[in-house]
Write a structure and sequence with these properties.
about 110 residues, mainly alpha, 4 helices, about 65% helix, flat
Length: about 110
């Protein structure tokens, strides 16, 4: 392969859309379930030097709650941005339209 061929590459694919809130919520529930399932085995885990497993699962659930807060805020911000973009496009296409036009996109 020549240097010229090595520089040529295909364009990056478009990012996939996913329901981030649902994904983070499922992960949070799984971590919390793991914490609850480890509680009956605390003594055994402590004897084997693995007591930290329970706390790791609880930390995962706590971080998942923070993740839920973050992805919900991000989703709301993206929705606001899209609504503003659609309103600006509508205003550019219809410069004489009144501001209370029922066909104008809303939030």
């Amino acid at each position: 392969m020549t240097r010229q061929q090595a520089r040529i590459r295909r364009p990056d694919p478009e990012p996939l859309e996913a329901d981030d809130v649902k994904i983070v919520a499922v992960g949070t529930v799984v971590w919390f379930a793991l914490f609850l399932m480890s509680l009956p085995f605390r003594d055994t885990l402590a004897d084997d030097g693995h007591e930290w497993w329970s706390w790791c699962a609880l930390a995962g659930a706590g971080l998942g709650i923070l993740g839920l807060w973050y992805v919900r805020r991000r989703h709301a911000a993206l929705d606001r941005r899209d609504a503003e973009r659609h309103a600006a496009e509508y205003a550019a296409r219809h410069p004489n339209a009144p501001r209370d036009d029922p066909d104008m996109p809303r939030d």
